[in-house]
Amino acid sequence: MDAAQTDTSPTYDLGLDRFPRVALCHQPTPIEPMVRLSEHLGGPSLYIKRDDCTGLAGGGNKTRKLEFLVGEAVKANADMLVTQGAVQSNHVRQTAAAACRMGLKCHVVLERRVPDRAESYEKTGNVLLDALFGATSEFRPAGLDMNAEAEAVTAALRAEGHNPYFIPGGGSNTVGALGYAACAQEIARQSDESGLPFHWIVMGTGSTGTQAGLVAGLHALDVDLPVMGVSVRQPRERQIAAVHKLAAASAESLNAPTLPVRKILVDDGYVGEGYGIPADSTLEAIRLTARQEGVLLDPVYSGKGMAGLIGMARAGFFKPTDNVLFLHTGGSQALFAYENEILDSLD
After folding, report:
1. Secondary structure of the chain in the HEC alphabet?
2. Catalytic residues
3. Which domain holds residue 223?
4. Do 198 and 49 share a structural domain?
């Protein structure tokens, strides 16, 4: 091959093969245009990264994290996964399914984080699926340090003779964040192969691991693509600090340069009354995305993330020529736990 024919395209390789990993995920997940929603909003050009299609237990973003977390568990000869989350946790559902896939037991600690819910809230949606996957569970009141609670349960199970592996809420540590470093690598390759440049990524941000992993991965790849996290729970400054702490540690684990805090972008204008409580903007985003694109969002994460994208588009935050990629983190299984709010919001 002569010099004129030399392939100079980037390889986008983070060297993730050096980390323990198991195969749980359909990947690469597709990137699709949202033509009707883009037209409805009058621009910019919107696209959606379908991480609701990762496969395990109906899909969702936690499956990418669990590939690395369960890889560590298998390496440690664990016989059980232990984790925690809110009652309708998507992470807990996918962890329970991953345990089934690997022939492990699963025990979960569920926080009654969302106030004033009907009794059925603890029996439907993700909770029903947790039980179907054979996970055993126990509940805690709101406001506790849930990772500490679950770690104490892990210690008790170890004392009983099990060899449990503890996974923090949301799978959000440097091991789990590798899943979204891998996703950053995947997006960079898809963009390069398709010739479609993206100018923004927008996503819901909660336990921090997804946004932190994405930002760390893009930083390590030297890809200049800003990631706007739409907070589903915490005020902006607190969320920025939490995401940056994990993103910086994740970048270090990837042997990347120091990651500056300015790379962490958060909009907290769509939280509403709190975690797990859909605001009017959340319900509108769920309805619009369903009716314009035939895509289901959830009331806790992706619905608030899309509400942020819609709000920013309406406010002129993006340039009309921008290509904006929405990261769909899954979670539509929880819609059934919010039946009344969804039905009341329909016209």
Report:
1. CCHHHCCCCCCCCCCHHHCCCCCCCCCCCCEEECHHHHHHHCCCEEEEEEHHHCCHHHCCCHHHHHHHHHHHHHHCCCCEEEEEEECCCHHHHHHHHHHHHHCCEEEEEEEECCCCCCHHHHCCHHHHHHHHCCCEEEEEECCCCHHHHHHHHHHHHHHCCCCEEEECHHHCCHHHHHHHHHHHHHHHHHHHHHCCCCCEEEEEECCCHHHHHHHHHHHHHCCCCCEEEEECCCCHHHHHHHHHHHHHHHHHHCCCCCCCHHHCEEECCCCCCCCCCCCHHHHHHHHHHHHHHCCCCCCCCHHHHHHHHHHHHHCCCCCCCCEEEEEECCCHHHHHHHHHHHHHHCC
2. 89
3. 15-59+173-345
4. yes
